Amino acid sequence: MIRHIVSFSLLLAAPLMAQADPATDYADHCASCHGEDRLGGTGPALIPETLGRVPGIEQVIAEGRVSTQMEGFAAELTTESIAALKDYITSPLDHLPDWTADEIAASREMNTDYQPAEKPVFAADPMNITLVVETGDHHVSVLDGDTFEVLDRFATPFAVHGGPKFSPDGRFVFVMSRDGWVQKYDIWSLQEVGRIRAALNSRNIAMSHDGKWLAVANYLPTSLTILSTEDLAPVRLVNVVSRDGTPSRVSAVYQAPQRKSFVLALKDAAEIWEIATDPDAGPFHEGLVHSYEKGMEEAVGAEQGLFARRRIPINEPLDDFFFSPDYREVIGANRDGNKGVVVNLDVGRAIAELPLPGMPHLGSGITWEREGHRVMATPHLGEGVISVIDMEDWSLVKQIKTDGPGFFLRGHATSPYVWADVFFGPNKGKMYVIDKETLEIVKTLEPFPGLTFAHTEFTRDGSHVLASLWEDDGAVVVYDAKTLEEVKRLPMRKPSGKYNVWNKITFEDGTSH
């Protein structure tokens, strides 16, 4: 009898289960915003490459996303249908999509209402402006670094990722989203200038030494997009393929100002690429060379001039780069996350290895002078440790123990302290203040126990430090950099990164670049 009841109940459930048709549900409810091919439209692309870190996808489908145009579909879709739709949009596409130069150019949208101001439309010091990225509702707040007044709050593309990049004069800022949109904003005018979709899934952006070019590192397609900073027009699309013919995602692109180049970390190739931003660069030889004498070069595969590429072979793929202040050396983390490799970019080879187990987060590393030596420090993503390294002989000076893995470090030339967070685990509400000379923790801040308290930034003069309560109902907390006492709280929607104009354009020691 029980067997018959179970069988009957399964028969009753079968029609309900059959109603889950994710392809049709996607076409009916999602395609108009996210594109019939799932590659995005007014909404972001819905593919694994862009959704990998988005939490609570089923909840977003059911309830929508606060402060966006994303509505909820709980009234139209059953729980089973929502689960099936989630599986559908997180499944790989049948073929790897492309995003051509023509499609990039066609996506460019310039703000027809934009009027460039002759001088800043505000009284604040334009060099002491701090931008706060609010990921809770996809906005950026523009702060006066002296009064901490919000001068403007503008909408950004969905899911801004990587640090904004400023023009060398500090007037314009460029922000990039996970789904490849790049936005230009005029700080003086407090207006958006325009935006363009450089790729389908991007990692970060970098500004050229002269402010003329913006490079966009892409996962999908495997490319580097170079834009004109003047009008966002695409000027070069570089397909990233290793010497053995393997396409590679670009983990990140970095500005190397002294070298007049971009430096690329490749995810899938044992190479580092350098792309020239100097029209007189090169030639860079990749094949056989018969003679290097001036005017007598006989070589295969040489590139020269603006955007010429130089390959630097390494033993294994490296990413999460940290650079010496003169940009001669780059330190990258290997895929296993158990060491750092120092590569001299002048000679084009590895010169040292650093024992850094626990996944060092080199991209957040900073440097300062200590006892006559330049040292660097990096947090670790896999353990509660901050490693301090002597940059003269690449020896380990000290490992500072913390109560959990951290993500960000900040300092300033005027401050005797380094600020370090605990980003992961039960102690994610802690912020450490570390003495640069003794390398000892002098104070632990924990204003929000159990909540994420992370990412600090100094004001231009180093007098104040801004830290984030990294929650949807969050805040930027302002501290006096000398007394270490709180002076102000600014309510924000999940504030993440904070970026001071002066610190970024002058490559302040305590700021990761």
UniProtKB/TrEMBL annotation:
Q: What is this protein called?
A: C-type cytochrome
Q: List the top taxonomic levels of the source.
A: Bacteria, Pseudomonadati, Pseudomonadota, Alphaproteobacteria, Rhodobacterales
PANTHER family found in the cross-reference section: DIHYDRO-HEME D1 DEHYDROGENASE, PROTEIN NIRF
Coiled-coil residue windows:
none
Q: Which intervals hold domain Cytochrome c?
A: 17-93
| InterPro entries, alphabetized | Cyt_c-like_dom, Cyt_c-like_dom_sf, Cyt_cd1_C_sf, Haem_d1_sf, Host-pathogen_enzymatic-act
Instruction: Identify the stretch annotated as signal peptide in this record.
Output: 1-20
Q: Which UniProt keywords apply?
A: Heme, Iron, Metal-binding, Signal
